[in-house]
């Protein structure tokens, strides 16, 4: 047992040495994002006052308002909506999509089929469920290439006059592909905007927050 333990410890030390460089990179990302959050708190002068209870209808709730400002700064966005009422990521995504899409518009996912939980949000036309397609919003998707990249031929051929929102899922989800980096997403956005600068590029950044020093909103995501 003692020999087994020593051998195991040796393999652990070897493994730690091999990943030491990557761990330092991760620590640097953590430190950068930690300071980014602290800077936002300092910029908006967050204090114990903002954590006080509000009453009535919560009009002029400074704690809520400053939280939105902090999130917007941290994620490089024009504005933010941070509420405990969003029950899940799917709830949040559906709120965003229903907010910008109207009957006759099209949602086009260029990273293949999204998470299973979004399928009911997209729905089917006339299904009576209150889904996007039930409200006359059409849906299209372009499968990824065999190496996990964007099929730009399919994307360019698929974008039409009714296409309003381009959907990008950053995380691999339940697929075998790699998750997309912010740099890759930036390249996608730039190419989409060259095709049609009026298209809204929506990025599902689930599981991607703070994994790099910048976010999709820093590279043009709407």
From TrEMBL:
Q: Name one Pfam family in it.
A: Met_gamma_lyase
Gene3D superfamilies given in the database record: Type I PLP-dependent aspartate aminotransferase-like (Major domain)
InterPro entries to which the protein is assigned, alphabetical: Met_g_lyase_put (IPR009651), PyrdxlP-dep_Trfase (IPR015424), PyrdxlP-dep_Trfase_major (IPR015421)
Question: Which superkingdom, per the lineage?
Answer: Bacteria
**What residue ranges are annotated as transmembrane?**
none
Q: Which SUPFAM superfamilies match?
A: PLP-dependent transferases
Entry's PANTHER family?
CYS OR MET METABOLISM PYRIDOXAL-PHOSPHATE-DEPENDENT ENZYME
Record protein name field: Aluminum resistance protein
Which organism was this protein described from? Paenibacillus pini JCM 16418
């Amino acid at each position: 047992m003692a020999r087994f333990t020593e051998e195991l410890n040796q393999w652990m030390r070897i493994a730690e040495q091999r990943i030491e460089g990557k761990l330092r990179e991760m620590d640097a990302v953590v430190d950068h994002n930690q300071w980014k959050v602290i800077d936002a708190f300092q910029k908006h002068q967050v204090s114990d006052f903002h954590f006080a209870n509000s009453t009535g209808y919560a009009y002029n709730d400074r704690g809520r308002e400053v939280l939105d400002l902090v999130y917007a700064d941290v994620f490089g966005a024009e504005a933010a909506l941070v509420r405990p009422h969003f029950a899940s990521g799917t709830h949040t995504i559906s709120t965003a999509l229903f907010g910008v899409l109207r009957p006759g518009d099209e949602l086009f996912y260029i990273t293949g089929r999204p998470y299973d939980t979004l399928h009911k949000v997209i729905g089917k036309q006339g299904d009576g469920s209150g889904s996007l397609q039930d409200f006359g919003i059409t849906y299209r998707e372009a499968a990824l290439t065999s190496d996990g990249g964007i099929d730009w031929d399919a994307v360019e051929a698929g974008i039409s006059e009714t296409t309003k929102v381009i959907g990008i899922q950053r995380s691999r989800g339940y697929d075998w592909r790699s998750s997309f980096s912010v740099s890759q997403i930036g390249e996608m956005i730039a190419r989409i905007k060259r095709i049609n600068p009026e298209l809204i590029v929506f990025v599902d950044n689930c599981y991607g927050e703070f994994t790099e020093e910048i976010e999709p909103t820093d590279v043009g995501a709407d």
